[in-house]
């Protein structure tokens, strides 16, 4: 009986277990089905999202293609014009360049670009430029005297050329008008001897962008000796080998450029090589410049890496220059860098003070800029200005040849220092004037006669150009209302024959006392409206720079008119630099048209 009960309980337990197992299986099946549904739903959503994403991408690509077609149509027109232009310089790849004279290269115009941002703010974000305000218009009854320091730097032009050739419009502050104009040589009369180190000439034309105004050109030409007659030189190459220089267009280009400079040196010249990164050091003690193998091996040994202790490098370079100092010779430190000083003496004022103190020892300081992205142009220009030297930007090997071979004498040999210009306009003849450029070179009126005030230098053979836009009293082109309470007394007749007094002060390289030069511009000359090729080409360059800065004073004057004026006044263009200008104007016009299309 007990056995039967046990069997019965076992049977009931077995049946219950089977029932439970069956119910569990059913529930599991339902769960699996639910999970499968969830997975299928998720996959469907993901597929839908992908389809939408592809649709958006297709739409964006279609929009980009439409924009590209618009740009391409414009570029075909630009290309037709550009086929007529023969250029040299930055349109040639670095690998195609050598040390020979530049060869003329015909190009078919800018390469097609689609959906390229006009100003890549990210690219320029770490580049540093000095803030430059627009030139002021002055009334002669309120401020008849204009005073400024001379400037022969050209770095702004080649730096902006780099940007335009990279299919980017430049930041406004990267454009310094005077450096655009002074990039080109002009056919000014040469002085007879270095006793009067430069000649001064004037020319007038009607302002191309304002028929009611005149454009006055003051042209200076420095005395130039034959290259073989240059005094012996003591050059210290100060090269930035920090990590930021690790690029073919930085340290790679620096090596090639300095080899070119060394190649043109003589046995009596001395060359040293100092480098700086996290620490600074001497790579080459003062060496006879004709020992080219030793110099080139020292340059070839340079590699980039580390942070940038520029201040320590400058101090060491001056020590090398003092060690090999040549009395009566050319003693100069030549800095090659992107200006990215980030350790050591990084304060701009401290670096400038150091260079300013050292120039009193007779050792000049020049700065050569290289590279893109973190370029500190502001510091480079200021160091060169305070070091009685030149500032240049090298964007390709042909620019290195222009600065360091073709213009070697002007780059290395100073023939006049602390050169200042002062123009006093006659209010009886001239109502208003505006100096084009030189905004960061302006001086106070009393600085002109103060020999302790630093100013610019002129190198051997350099040409320097200053342009004034002036409005005569009988013109309808005045921008300012006349003063109600101004002095309206009749001007004496003899004062009506002069329009302006032009004065220059300068010091010879070894002197501390300035010499005064003075000339008078006749009113009849200022009333003339036809200028020659010198002033007309300078006007086209100045107008190009003004357009890049926004064209505040140009009215409806356009890129086409700048290009036409440059073409008409190009004259002899042995090296192709003037032809290249017209190519750059075409590129700027194309980019500006893209900006207009984007704005619409």
UniProtKB/TrEMBL annotation:
UniProt cross-references to InterPro entries, sorted A to Z: CLCR, Uncharacterised_YfbK_N, VWF_A, vWFA_dom_sf, YfbK_C
Occurrences of domain VWFA (ranges): 234-415
Pfam families attached to this UniProt entry: VWA, vWF_A, YfbK_C
Region (Disordered): 41-66
Biased composition (Basic and acidic residues): 43-59
Species this chain originates from: Kangiella japonica
Signal peptide: 1-27
Keywords, sorted A to Z: Signal
Name used for this protein in its record: VWA domain-containing protein
